[in-house]
Write a structure and sequence with these properties.
This protein has 18 helices and no strands. The protein is mainly alpha-helical. It starts with a helix and ends in a 7-residue tail after the last helix. Its main location: membrane.
Length: 442
């Protein structure tokens, strides 16, 4: 039997696969609601700011709760924490549905509800990710992570299509009921499984440890190990330009097509399909034996195809480039996470991964603000016919509206290529899998 099929037949994988299926169903339902509410907010306000604020309030509590969630994940039953998060998500969706059905739903209601949803959603993400090392054999971490990637990309493909079909025909309420049903399905899958408990490993006595020491444990653990520090720095240096370019992606395509949303939809769908296919191929292959290759080569390859996306001038080029770029995302995320799962003891993963994720959450919150400022105030004016950068880059990017955004997008994409290549010059990063013993051996 092929190794990829043996992976699915392992008895130790059954619990993971049950949870994974529940998360798949629930995520599709949640994505449908998000998509439909985005349309509803736009129809009601016509304001891009209102939409941006919904995203901001969903993200803000993740900044505040991540370190506390890390402590909770290491100390309490991870299945119970996931169940609590599912209940809160169910109640949030139910509240929106009841407000909508009674014609009382206002945009400001969503700010409060998505804040609750985002905070407990981060708790669930941490509880789920730190459960992988307890449920999956070490050699299968990359495959398990690739299945996780397939969840989000599948939802990104199917949820907008389903919601786009149902919303104009049956109204927003039909999507709420589907979402609530998916929450119940996910809740049931969590009820019927058991996730092993971990024993808390204490570096100092709990009674002597201050709250600040508990909150900063993950950061101190990473900083104490040069290779883990190199991993965190490398991903940070990748995430900053990548998140800036992600914020520029939609405006860039719309500016270069005269606001054609159908073209934007086609290119975005291609990326979703690429992500699913990339995750499935990675699951069948299992990834590089040395996972650091999957991370660094993934950075470089992803940045290369994103550069082609920015330089491209036609729809076929955009579709192919974005498809190939997205196909590599599961490789570098899964490879990186597999290293963390292998090297950090399961009893510490909640706090350590929380620290690592908090860096990413902070970047993803700030990067759009940086992108907007650089695009509107620096690069767009500089790429106008009389701008300072037009004589240098005008022949490549033009001097019309959107040229500055495109230049910034390409520049950020090239930066991600450089991070991937230069990562090999850092010994503590390149040899992370040799320099840190596996947690099972320590």
């Amino acid at each position: 039997m092929p190794q990829s099929l043996q992976f699915l037949q392992l008895p130790t994988m059954r619990t993971f696969l049950v949870i994974w299926l529940g998360q798949m169903v629930s995520t599709i339902g949640s994505f449908m609601t998000v998509f439909a509410l985005t349309i509803w907010v736009w129809d009601k306000t016509g304001s891009a700011t209102a939409l941006a604020l919904v995203g901001f309030f969903a993200q803000l509590p993740r900044l505040l709760i991540t370190t506390f969630a890390g402590i909770a994940v290491d100390r309490y039953d991870r299945r119970l924490l996931m169940l609590i998060a599912e209940v809160v998500a169910f109640l949030c969706t139910l509240a929106v549905a009841l407000l909508y059905l009674t014609q009382q739903l206002q945009v400001w209601h969503l700010y409060i509800i998505v804040a609750l949803y985002g905070g407990f959603g981060q708790l669930q993400v941490l509880a789920y990710s730190t459960s992988i090392a307890l449920l999956v054999p070490q050699e299968q971490y990359t495959r398990a992570e690739s299945l996780g990637s397939a969840v989000n990309y599948s939802a990104a493909i199917f949820a907008p299509a389903l919601a786009g079909f149902l919303y104009p025909r049956f109204g927003l309420q039909s999507i709420f009921w589907i979402d609530l049903a998916t929450f119940i399905a996910s809740f049931v899958t969590l009820l019927i499984v058991r996730i092993p408990r971990t024993s808390i490993e204490k570096t100092v006595d709990d009674h002597q440890e201050t709250l600040w020491q508990k909150l900063t444990f993950g950061f101190r653990y990473i900083w104490a190990n040069p290779s883990l520090t190199a991993m965190a720095i490398a991903f940070t240096l990748f995430a900053i330009p990548n998140d800036i370019s992600k914020a520029l992606y939609s405006p860039m395509i719309l500016a270069r097509t005269g606001g054609d949303s159908e073209i934007l939809g086609a290119v975005t769908t291609a990326a979703g399909i690429g992500g699913v296919i990339g995750a499935l191929l990675l699951g069948a292959w299992g990834g590089f034996k040395r996972r650091i290759h999957g991370m660094l080569l993934g950075f470089a390859g992803y940045g290369f195809f994103r550069t082609i996306l920015g330089l491209g001038q036609t729809l076929p080029v955009w579709i192919v480039a974005h498809f190939l770029a997205a196909a590599l995302i599961p490789m570098f995320y899964s490879s990186s996470n597999a290293i963390w799962y292998t090297k950090v003891p399961p009893a510490l993963q909640g706090r350590v991964l929380a620290a690592d994720q908090l860096i990413g959450v902070t970047i993803s919150t700030i990067a759009p603000l940086i992108a907007g400022f650089l695009a509107d105030q620096v690069f767009e004016p500089a790429m106008r016919p009389t701008g300072s950068l037009a004589p240098i880059f005008g022949n490549f990017f033009g001097t019309r509206i959107g040229s500055g955004i495109t230049l910034l997008f390409v520049s950020m994409s090239i930066c991600t290529v450089i991070v991937g290549i230069l990562g090999y010059s850092v010994r503590s990063l390149r040899r992370v899998e040799d320099l840190i013993p596996d947690s099972s051996q320590s």
